Amino acid sequence: TKDISILAIESSCDETSASIILNGKVLNNIVATQSVHEKYGGVVPELASRAHQENIVPVVYEALSTSGLNKEDLSAIAFTRGPGLMGALLVGVSFAKSLAYSLQIPLIEVNHMQAHVLAHFIEDPKPKFPFICLTVSGGHTQLVLVKSPLEMEVIGETRDDAVGEAFDKTAKLLGLPYPGGPLIDKYAKEGNPKAFQFPITRMPELDYSFSGIKTAVLYFLREQLQSNPNFNEENIADLCASVQYSLIEMLLIKLKLAVKQYGVKEIAIAGGVSANSGLRDTLTDLAKKRGWNLYIPKFEYCTDNAAMIAMAAHFKYQEGEFASMDVTPLAKMKI
Ligand code: KG4
Ligand code: ZN
Protein backbone atom coordinates (compact mmCIF):
# COMPACT_ATOMS: atom_id res chain seq x y z
CA THR A 1 0.00 0.00 0.00
CA LYS A 2 0.94 3.61 -0.57
CA ASP A 3 2.50 5.76 2.17
CA ILE A 4 0.36 8.51 3.67
CA SER A 5 2.50 11.61 4.19
CA ILE A 6 0.89 14.87 5.19
CA LEU A 7 2.28 18.36 5.69
CA ALA A 8 0.29 20.24 8.35
CA ILE A 9 0.26 23.97 9.05
CA GLU A 10 -0.91 25.74 12.22
CA SER A 11 -1.36 29.54 12.34
CA SER A 12 -4.39 30.21 14.54
CA CYS A 13 -2.78 32.47 17.14
CA ASP A 14 0.84 33.49 17.75
CA GLU A 15 2.69 30.31 16.77
CA THR A 16 3.60 29.54 13.16
CA SER A 17 4.13 25.82 12.95
CA ALA A 18 4.60 23.06 10.38
CA SER A 19 4.84 19.32 10.82
CA ILE A 20 5.13 16.21 8.65
CA ILE A 21 3.40 12.98 9.54
CA LEU A 22 4.25 9.72 7.73
CA ASN A 23 1.81 6.81 8.12
CA GLY A 24 0.61 8.17 11.47
CA LYS A 25 4.09 8.85 12.85
CA VAL A 26 5.01 12.50 13.46
CA LEU A 27 8.45 13.14 11.94
CA ASN A 28 8.96 16.68 13.18
CA ASN A 29 7.24 19.71 14.68
CA ILE A 30 8.75 23.06 13.73
CA VAL A 31 7.44 26.01 15.75
CA ALA A 32 8.27 29.70 15.35
CA THR A 33 7.06 31.60 18.42
CA GLN A 34 6.28 35.28 17.99
CA SER A 35 7.97 37.49 20.54
CA VAL A 36 6.63 40.81 19.14
CA HIS A 37 3.60 40.57 21.45
CA GLU A 38 5.53 40.53 24.73
CA LYS A 39 5.70 44.27 25.21
CA TYR A 40 1.97 44.68 24.54
CA GLY A 41 0.89 42.30 27.29
CA GLY A 42 -1.14 40.14 24.91
CA VAL A 43 -1.38 38.98 21.30
CA VAL A 44 -1.88 41.83 18.81
CA PRO A 45 -3.81 40.29 15.89
CA GLU A 46 -2.36 42.43 13.09
CA LEU A 47 1.19 41.81 14.28
CA ALA A 48 0.45 38.10 14.50
CA SER A 49 -0.68 37.98 10.85
CA ARG A 50 2.44 39.79 9.68
CA ALA A 51 4.72 37.51 11.69
CA HIS A 52 2.96 34.43 10.23
CA GLN A 53 3.64 35.79 6.74
CA GLU A 54 7.30 36.18 7.57
CA ASN A 55 7.62 32.79 9.23
CA ILE A 56 5.53 30.47 7.13
CA VAL A 57 7.97 29.82 4.27
CA PRO A 58 11.02 29.10 6.47
CA VAL A 59 8.96 26.98 8.88
CA VAL A 60 7.46 24.83 6.11
CA TYR A 61 10.84 24.60 4.42
CA GLU A 62 12.44 23.34 7.63
CA ALA A 63 9.69 20.77 8.18
CA LEU A 64 10.16 19.43 4.65
CA SER A 65 13.94 19.42 4.67
CA THR A 66 14.28 17.70 8.06
CA SER A 67 11.69 15.06 7.14
CA GLY A 68 13.74 13.48 4.41
CA LEU A 69 10.73 13.77 2.09
CA ASN A 70 10.33 15.88 -1.05
CA LYS A 71 7.22 17.94 -1.55
CA GLU A 72 6.37 15.65 -4.48
CA ASP A 73 6.08 12.77 -1.97
CA LEU A 74 3.25 14.46 -0.03
CA SER A 75 -0.23 12.90 -0.08
CA ALA A 76 -2.08 15.95 1.29
CA ILE A 77 -1.74 19.40 2.87
CA ALA A 78 -3.55 20.06 6.15
CA PHE A 79 -4.24 23.37 7.87
CA THR A 80 -6.03 24.82 10.87
CA ARG A 81 -9.36 26.21 9.69
CA GLY A 82 -10.36 27.62 13.08
CA PRO A 83 -11.09 28.71 15.74
CA GLY A 84 -8.55 31.50 15.99
CA LEU A 85 -7.63 34.98 14.82
CA MET A 86 -9.03 35.56 11.34
CA GLY A 87 -5.96 37.29 9.92
CA ALA A 88 -3.64 34.69 11.40
CA LEU A 89 -5.72 31.77 10.09
CA LEU A 90 -5.87 33.35 6.62
CA VAL A 91 -2.10 33.11 6.23
CA GLY A 92 -2.08 29.35 6.89
CA VAL A 93 -5.21 28.62 4.86
CA SER A 94 -3.99 30.56 1.81
CA PHE A 95 -0.56 28.99 1.96
CA ALA A 96 -1.99 25.48 2.29
CA LYS A 97 -4.37 26.02 -0.62
CA SER A 98 -1.68 27.32 -2.97
CA LEU A 99 0.66 24.48 -2.13
CA ALA A 100 -2.04 21.81 -2.52
CA TYR A 101 -3.10 23.38 -5.82
CA SER A 102 0.42 23.51 -7.19
CA LEU A 103 1.11 19.91 -6.18
CA GLN A 104 -2.36 18.76 -7.26
CA ILE A 105 -3.00 16.94 -3.97
CA PRO A 106 -5.96 17.09 -1.55
CA LEU A 107 -6.49 19.63 1.23
CA ILE A 108 -7.53 18.69 4.76
CA GLU A 109 -9.11 21.22 7.13
CA VAL A 110 -8.60 20.71 10.85
CA ASN A 111 -10.45 22.09 13.85
CA HIS A 112 -7.83 23.43 16.25
CA MET A 113 -9.75 22.25 19.34
CA GLN A 114 -10.14 18.74 17.97
CA ALA A 115 -6.43 18.74 17.26
CA HIS A 116 -5.57 19.67 20.87
CA VAL A 117 -7.43 16.52 21.94
CA LEU A 118 -5.85 14.35 19.23
CA ALA A 119 -2.36 15.42 20.37
CA HIS A 120 -2.78 12.44 22.71
CA PHE A 121 -2.34 10.08 19.75
CA ILE A 122 1.09 11.34 18.75
CA GLU A 123 2.90 9.20 21.33
CA ASP A 124 2.20 6.34 23.74
CA PRO A 125 0.45 5.84 26.09
CA LYS A 126 -2.76 6.69 24.24
CA PRO A 127 -6.13 7.07 25.99
CA LYS A 128 -8.84 4.52 25.26
CA PHE A 129 -12.25 5.54 23.95
CA PRO A 130 -14.41 6.97 25.35
CA PHE A 131 -12.32 9.45 27.31
CA ILE A 132 -12.81 12.91 28.77
CA CYS A 133 -10.35 15.61 27.75
CA LEU A 134 -9.94 18.86 29.68
CA THR A 135 -8.53 21.32 27.16
CA VAL A 136 -7.05 24.35 28.89
CA SER A 137 -5.18 27.11 27.10
CA GLY A 138 -4.94 30.84 26.59
CA GLY A 139 -7.96 30.87 24.31
CA HIS A 140 -10.03 27.89 25.43
CA THR A 141 -11.34 25.90 28.37
CA GLN A 142 -13.42 22.87 27.42
CA LEU A 143 -14.47 19.51 28.74
CA VAL A 144 -14.74 17.19 25.76
CA LEU A 145 -16.21 13.70 25.63
CA VAL A 146 -14.18 11.86 23.00
CA LYS A 147 -15.97 8.86 21.51
CA SER A 148 -13.62 8.14 18.62
CA PRO A 149 -10.87 10.13 16.85
CA LEU A 150 -13.34 12.25 14.92
CA GLU A 151 -16.39 12.02 17.14
CA MET A 152 -16.29 14.50 20.00
CA GLU A 153 -18.81 16.36 22.07
CA VAL A 154 -18.19 19.48 24.15
CA ILE A 155 -19.88 18.74 27.47
CA GLY A 156 -18.73 21.87 29.29
CA GLU A 157 -16.89 25.09 28.50
CA THR A 158 -16.11 28.56 29.72
CA ARG A 159 -18.75 31.22 29.27
CA ASP A 160 -16.23 34.05 29.36
CA ASP A 161 -12.42 34.04 29.81
CA ALA A 162 -10.28 30.97 29.26
CA VAL A 163 -8.33 29.71 32.26
CA GLY A 164 -5.00 30.64 30.62
CA GLU A 165 -6.38 34.14 30.18
CA ALA A 166 -7.14 34.25 33.92
CA PHE A 167 -3.52 33.27 34.65
CA ASP A 168 -2.19 35.84 32.20
CA LYS A 169 -4.44 38.68 33.38
CA THR A 170 -3.55 38.03 37.02
CA ALA A 171 0.11 38.10 36.05
CA LYS A 172 -0.40 41.39 34.22
CA LEU A 173 -1.93 42.95 37.36
CA LEU A 174 1.20 41.85 39.21
CA GLY A 175 3.36 43.58 36.61
CA LEU A 176 4.68 40.32 35.13
CA PRO A 177 5.43 40.04 31.38
CA TYR A 178 3.17 38.21 28.88
CA PRO A 179 2.38 35.34 28.94
CA GLY A 180 2.42 35.32 32.73
CA GLY A 181 0.96 31.84 33.32
CA PRO A 182 4.35 30.10 33.62
CA LEU A 183 5.55 32.82 36.06
CA ILE A 184 2.52 32.42 38.31
CA ASP A 185 3.33 28.71 38.32
CA LYS A 186 6.94 29.47 39.29
CA TYR A 187 6.08 31.87 42.15
CA ALA A 188 3.25 29.64 43.36
CA LYS A 189 5.77 26.91 44.16
CA GLU A 190 7.21 29.11 46.92
CA GLY A 191 3.86 30.28 48.27
CA ASN A 192 1.05 29.18 50.53
CA PRO A 193 -2.12 28.38 48.54
CA LYS A 194 -4.26 29.03 51.60
CA ALA A 195 -2.74 32.45 52.36
CA PHE A 196 -5.54 34.40 50.68
CA GLN A 197 -8.97 33.41 49.52
CA PHE A 198 -10.14 34.01 45.97
CA PRO A 199 -13.60 33.18 44.73
CA ILE A 200 -14.51 29.77 43.35
CA THR A 201 -17.10 30.63 40.69
CA ARG A 202 -19.68 27.91 40.16
CA MET A 203 -21.50 27.95 36.86
CA PRO A 204 -24.44 25.67 36.02
CA GLU A 205 -23.83 22.17 34.68
CA LEU A 206 -20.31 21.56 33.42
CA ASP A 207 -19.62 25.16 32.40
CA TYR A 208 -16.89 27.46 33.66
CA SER A 209 -16.39 31.16 34.32
CA PHE A 210 -12.94 32.62 34.91
CA SER A 211 -13.57 36.32 34.41
CA GLY A 212 -14.19 37.01 38.11
CA ILE A 213 -10.65 36.30 39.19
CA LYS A 214 -9.03 39.33 37.59
CA THR A 215 -11.44 41.71 39.32
CA ALA A 216 -10.92 39.89 42.61
CA VAL A 217 -7.15 40.21 42.26
CA LEU A 218 -7.44 43.88 41.26
CA TYR A 219 -9.53 44.76 44.33
CA PHE A 220 -7.36 42.63 46.54
CA LEU A 221 -4.20 44.44 45.41
CA ARG A 222 -5.76 47.87 45.83
CA GLU A 223 -6.89 47.07 49.30
CA GLN A 224 -3.62 45.47 50.40
CA LEU A 225 -1.50 48.27 49.02
CA GLN A 226 -3.60 50.81 50.93
CA SER A 227 -4.18 49.01 54.19
CA ASN A 228 -1.14 46.85 54.68
CA PRO A 229 2.18 48.74 54.64
CA ASN A 230 4.04 45.45 54.90
CA PHE A 231 2.53 44.06 51.71
CA ASN A 232 5.38 43.62 49.24
CA GLU A 233 6.99 41.30 46.73
CA GLU A 234 7.35 38.59 49.32
CA ASN A 235 3.59 38.26 49.29
CA ILE A 236 3.62 37.65 45.54
CA ALA A 237 4.39 33.97 46.04
CA ASP A 238 1.42 33.59 48.39
CA LEU A 239 -0.79 35.55 46.06
CA CYS A 240 0.20 33.44 43.04
CA ALA A 241 -0.25 30.22 45.01
CA SER A 242 -3.69 31.33 46.21
CA VAL A 243 -4.94 32.42 42.76
CA GLN A 244 -3.60 29.24 41.19
CA TYR A 245 -5.31 27.20 43.90
CA SER A 246 -8.70 28.73 43.05
CA LEU A 247 -8.24 28.24 39.31
CA ILE A 248 -7.26 24.59 39.75
CA GLU A 249 -10.16 24.00 42.13
CA MET A 250 -12.61 25.38 39.58
CA LEU A 251 -11.16 23.17 36.84
CA LEU A 252 -11.27 20.03 38.95
CA ILE A 253 -14.74 20.51 40.45
CA LYS A 254 -16.26 20.23 36.98
CA LEU A 255 -13.93 17.48 35.86
CA LYS A 256 -15.02 15.37 38.85
CA LEU A 257 -18.64 16.11 38.03
CA ALA A 258 -18.12 15.09 34.38
CA VAL A 259 -16.49 11.82 35.43
CA LYS A 260 -19.49 11.11 37.63
CA GLN A 261 -22.04 12.03 34.97
CA TYR A 262 -20.47 10.05 32.15
CA GLY A 263 -18.93 7.18 34.13
CA VAL A 264 -15.67 7.50 32.24
CA LYS A 265 -12.33 7.04 34.00
CA GLU A 266 -9.98 7.67 31.10
CA ILE A 267 -8.96 11.29 31.65
CA ALA A 268 -6.75 13.47 29.47
CA ILE A 269 -5.60 17.07 29.65
CA ALA A 270 -4.46 19.21 26.75
CA GLY A 271 -3.51 22.82 25.96
CA GLY A 272 -0.83 25.17 27.27
CA VAL A 273 -2.15 25.37 30.85
CA SER A 274 -1.65 21.61 31.25
CA ALA A 275 2.02 22.56 31.72
CA ASN A 276 1.04 24.06 35.09
CA SER A 277 2.81 22.05 37.77
CA GLY A 278 0.11 22.69 40.37
CA LEU A 279 -2.56 21.35 38.02
CA ARG A 280 -0.42 18.34 37.07
CA ASP A 281 0.35 17.45 40.69
CA THR A 282 -3.19 17.91 41.97
CA LEU A 283 -4.64 15.99 39.05
CA THR A 284 -2.11 13.19 39.39
CA ASP A 285 -3.03 12.78 43.09
CA LEU A 286 -6.72 12.91 42.32
CA ALA A 287 -6.38 10.30 39.57
CA LYS A 288 -4.52 7.97 41.93
CA LYS A 289 -7.15 8.38 44.62
CA ARG A 290 -10.07 7.80 42.28
CA GLY A 291 -8.56 5.14 40.06
CA TRP A 292 -8.56 7.24 36.89
CA ASN A 293 -6.12 6.64 34.06
CA LEU A 294 -4.57 10.05 33.47
CA TYR A 295 -2.91 11.15 30.21
CA ILE A 296 -0.75 14.27 29.93
CA PRO A 297 1.01 14.88 26.61
CA LYS A 298 4.56 16.14 26.28
CA PHE A 299 4.70 19.93 26.74
CA GLU A 300 5.68 20.40 23.08
CA TYR A 301 2.32 18.90 22.07
CA CYS A 302 0.31 20.80 24.72
CA THR A 303 1.01 24.31 23.45
CA ASP A 304 -0.01 25.30 19.94
CA ASN A 305 1.81 23.13 17.40
CA ALA A 306 1.36 21.63 13.94
CA ALA A 307 2.06 18.04 15.03
CA MET A 308 -1.41 17.86 16.54
CA ILE A 309 -2.87 19.25 13.29
CA ALA A 310 -0.95 16.56 11.40
CA MET A 311 -2.28 13.84 13.73
CA ALA A 312 -5.87 15.02 13.23
CA ALA A 313 -5.29 15.20 9.47
CA HIS A 314 -4.01 11.63 9.41
CA PHE A 315 -7.31 10.43 10.91
CA LYS A 316 -9.28 12.52 8.41
CA TYR A 317 -7.22 11.27 5.46
CA GLN A 318 -8.07 7.69 6.39
CA GLU A 319 -11.76 8.61 6.43
CA GLY A 320 -11.45 10.42 3.09
CA GLU A 321 -12.47 13.74 4.65
CA PHE A 322 -11.05 16.38 2.34
CA ALA A 323 -11.71 20.11 2.02
CA SER A 324 -12.64 21.90 -1.17
CA MET A 325 -10.47 24.60 -2.73
CA ASP A 326 -12.94 27.35 -1.80
CA VAL A 327 -12.73 26.65 1.95
CA THR A 328 -12.39 29.77 4.14
CA PRO A 329 -11.10 30.17 7.71
CA LEU A 330 -13.52 30.43 10.63
CA ALA A 331 -12.70 32.60 13.67
CA LYS A 332 -15.35 30.70 15.57
CA MET A 333 -15.69 27.00 14.91
CA LYS A 334 -17.41 24.30 16.89
CA ILE A 335 -15.94 20.85 17.54
O1 KG4 B 1 -2.16 26.24 24.17
P1 KG4 B 1 -1.41 27.52 24.25
O2 KG4 B 1 0.06 27.51 23.95
O3 KG4 B 1 -2.01 28.59 23.31
C1 KG4 B 1 -3.36 28.80 23.15
O4 KG4 B 1 -3.98 28.11 22.29
O5 KG4 B 1 -3.87 29.66 23.87
O6 KG4 B 1 -1.64 28.09 25.74
C2 KG4 B 1 -1.04 29.28 26.18
C3 KG4 B 1 -1.53 29.56 27.58
C4 KG4 B 1 -1.14 30.94 28.10
O7 KG4 B 1 -2.26 31.51 28.72
C5 KG4 B 1 -0.05 30.62 29.13
O8 KG4 B 1 0.03 31.57 30.16
C6 KG4 B 1 -0.54 29.29 29.65
O9 KG4 B 1 -0.98 28.61 28.50
N1 KG4 B 1 0.51 28.55 30.34
C7 KG4 B 1 0.53 28.31 31.67
C8 KG4 B 1 1.71 27.58 31.94
N2 KG4 B 1 2.37 27.39 30.77
C9 KG4 B 1 1.62 27.98 29.80
N3 KG4 B 1 -0.35 28.66 32.62
C10 KG4 B 1 -0.07 28.28 33.87
N4 KG4 B 1 1.04 27.59 34.23
C11 KG4 B 1 1.95 27.22 33.31
N5 KG4 B 1 3.04 26.53 33.66
ZN1 ZN C 1 -4.55 26.17 21.12
From TrEMBL:
Family according to the record: Belongs to the KAE1 / TsaD family.
GO terms for MF: iron ion binding; tRNA N(6)-L-threonylcarbamoyladenine synthase activity
GO CC annotation terms, alphabetical: cytoplasm
Protein name: tRNA N6-adenosine threonylcarbamoyltransferase
Lineage of producing organism: Bacteria, Pseudomonadati, Bacteroidota, Cytophagia, Cytophagales
Cofactor: Fe(2+)
Pfam family, one: TsaD
GO BP: any one term: tRNA threonylcarbamoyladenosine modification
UniProt keyword list: Acyltransferase, Cytoplasm, Iron, Metal-binding, Transferase, tRNA processing
Gene3D superfamilies reported for this sequence: 3.30.420.40
Free-text remark on how the cofactor is bound: Binds 1 Fe(2+) ion per subunit.
Intracellular or extracellular location(s): Cytoplasm
Native source species: Algoriphagus zhangzhouensis
Domain of life of the source: Bacteria
Binding site for substrate: T135, V136, S137, G138, G139, D168, G181, D185, N276
EC number: 2.3.1.234
Its job: Required for the formation of a threonylcarbamoyl group on adenosine at position 37 (t(6)A37) in tRNAs that read codons beginning with adenine. Is involved in the transfer of the threonylcarbamoyl moiety of threonylcarbamoyl-AMP (TC-AMP) to the N6 group of A37, together with TsaE and TsaB. TsaD likely plays a direct catalytic role in this reaction.
Keyword Mitochondrion (UniProt): no
Keyword Transferase in annotation: yes
Residue span, Gcp-like domain: 25-310
